[in-house]
Design brief:
Helix content: 40-55%
CATH class: Alpha Beta
Largest sheet: 7 strands, parallel
Structural class: alpha/beta
Strand content: 5-15%
CATH architecture: 3-Layer(aba) Sandwich
Radius of gyration: 18 Å
């Protein structure tokens, strides 16, 4: 795996950090990116591995993407992980009736525009060699989420764009695959960090078929598989990491 160099967006978050950890353990080179620079540098230094470095990358800005690929032309795997929900930013409600137009655009600019820009410039850089794009979508892109309208909309669009990119690259005979991972109910800082958070997670776990929340490592393990050559015939696919939530109900009909 000496020829692999993986770019991770949103690398300062729980899932991004976990993905980096799994890759570093395999001695895979990693370029960790985020806009939370202090945290990004701290995480990178904690690995004590010369093959990982951190740079500032705002996924909403095309100039940042162009500069990143110009200075790191050996990147051959892109993990579009950066994403926001919209809560905790003084943006107000995120439901379809009360959400502001501004916050709607802010969420989409990170979750969707970031994926478009990253994929675009990755294709330009890698169209003459083997490359892989892995998009972190969400269960929320499959079902409606009344209190997270923009988030659900953006993740649904990521799912569709994943298929579009996969088919485009296949049609152009570019050796670039593109797949999506759909996490749900993953225990991250998104759920808060206090006793109320833990109570909520315990309560919500009862609605998950396996009766527990997932861990960032559950997502990272799948990313590692998709990064390796074992997944070379997989493209345009979606992988649910949700404890069986999207499979349906575990309750059987009551017989008469």
């Amino acid at each position: 795996m000496d020829d692999l160099k993986v770019l991770i967006t949103g690398g300062a978050g729980n899932i991004g950090k976990s993905i980096a950890s799994f890759l570093v353990k395999q001695k895979i080179k990693v370029l960790l990116t985020d806009i939370r620079d202090d945290l990004g540098y701290k995480i990178t230094e904690s690995f004590n591995f010369s093959g990982i470095k951190y740079i500032h990358l705002d996924v909403r800005k095309e100039g940042d993407w162009i500069k990143t690929f110009e200075t790191n032309p050996d990147i051959n795997i892109l993990i579009n992980n950066a994403g926001i929900i919209g809560f905790g930013r003084n943006w107000g409600p995120q439901d379809p009736e009360n959400q502001t137009f501004e916050s709607w655009h802010e969420v989409h600019s990170v979750n969707l525009d970031g994926v478009f820009l990253g994929s675009k410039h990755f294709i330009v850089t890698n169209k003459n060699r083997t490359g892989k794009i892995i998009n972190i979508a969400s269960r929320s892109g499959v079902v409606g989420v009344p209190t997270c309208a923009a988030y659900a909309s953006s993740k649904a669009a990521v799912r569709n764009h994943t298929k579009t990119v996969a088919l485009y690259c296949a049609n152009k005979k570019y050796d670039i695959s593109c797949n999506a991972i759909l996490p749900a109910s993953i225990d991250t800082d998104m759920w808060g960090q206090d006793l109320i958070r833990r109570r909520n997670i315990n309560k919500l776990s009862m609605g998950i078929p396996v009766k527990r929340f997932g861990k960032p490592e559950d997502v990272a393990e799948l990313v590692l598989f998709l990064v390796t050559m074992e997944s070379k015939y997989i493209t345009g696919a979606e992988f649910c990491v949700d404890g069986g939530v999207l499979a349906g109900s575990i309750f059987s009909p009551i017989p008469y």
